[in-house]
Amino acid sequence: MSADQEYTVDDIIGDLSDLHGLLEAVRVFLDGMDYGVGKERNHQLDRVASLTSIASRFSKQILELTDANYRQLKAGRAAE
Predict the structure, then answer these.
(1) N or C: which end of the chain has fewer CB within 10 A?
(2) Measured CA distances, 68 to 15, 18, 23, 63 (Å)
(3) Tell me: the pLDDT tens digits for 47-63?
(4) Into how many domains does the chain fold?
């Protein structure tokens, strides 16, 4: 999309949905990985999994709020 094209509320909801789907797929993939135990534990992988989980939850929350306030956003009004 170029800068001169209109970016609508529908575009935002679609992009948020795609972002959430991507983050969920990564989260599920990370959940299935072997993190090791004890001294062999991969703590960096733990951090990546935690951050991905947080980002997934936030993207879902933003998507749900955007969807719930669709009419107001479409009309250019702030949520009441």
Answers:
(1) C
(2) 16, 17, 21, 8
(3) 999 999 999 999 999 99
(4) 1
